[in-house]
Amino acid sequence: MAQRRAGRGGTPRTPRGDREGGGRRGGDLGNRVLVAIPALAVALTMVALGDWVFLAGVAVLGLICLHELFQMFERARPARLAGAVGLIGLLLAAHFGTRETVLLVFLACLPLTFVVAVNQRGGGGAPGISVTILGLAWIGLALAHAILLRDLDHGGGLVFAVLLGTFVGDTGAYLGGRAFGRRKLAPTISPNKTIEGLAIGIVLGTAAVWWAGLSQPWLGGGNGAILGVAIAIAAPLGDLFESYLKRDAGTKDTGTLFGAHGGALDRLDAILFTAVTGYYVWQALV
Known about the structure:
This protein has one domain (about 1-5, about 30-285). The chain is mainly alpha-helical. Strands 1-2 form a two-stranded antiparallel ribbon. Helix 4 packs antiparallel against helix 7, helix 7 packs across helix 12 (about 270-285) and helix 8 packs antiparallel against helix 9 (about 195-215). The chain is globular, with a radius of gyration of 19 Å. The protein has twelve helices and two strands.
């Protein structure tokens, strides 16, 4: 309850720590690695198996992310049932249909959200509808694009490239910011992030996907570099977007799925931007 009270009225409580040093996350790199290794193993297994395994895994993560978002803004009374149904609908539309099918389902989510908000206990109003649609746009559409990406030719390799660029870029920004960071990137949103860390993360994230492309003829070094730089730029934007919402809600973590390292949204915030970016950049390249 203390977490929710902190976000009501007045100036939101400042979240502690972020990914470029300082605060709680800054002094436990070893614990970060211990959390990342099993999470990456599960993610890579899902990507490798694809089809229903990937769909089911993404659906579970998506529902957890929605729950965390709705908990952060519980005071708005989001339409939880509409969010869950809409998310599953978006993922099924991506798996069995096309981008146009995903768009059609997303448009259908607005009247669905209205009906649920009107009939749920306590109503919902504009705040509840807004948070619900935010969740479906931010989380639902992003994960639907992850499904679309995985179902393309060489989809497993493409999702791996997105994960690689995101992870290496994030790690590079964290370590680079700790070692060389001087100038604040967005002090009012995420005080510990630095311009130097951002630059190092972009360079390393781009290089990682470029390197992966050199060993994959279907990707190639040139396309890998283009895809890599797009991913490396999108990832910190996704991170900052989530940090902005957490600051508004007055919370330091979105959940406890990863223990002291926060919730699913804390781990997937960059992916929610890079999955969409990776899909459209690759479509433009081919």
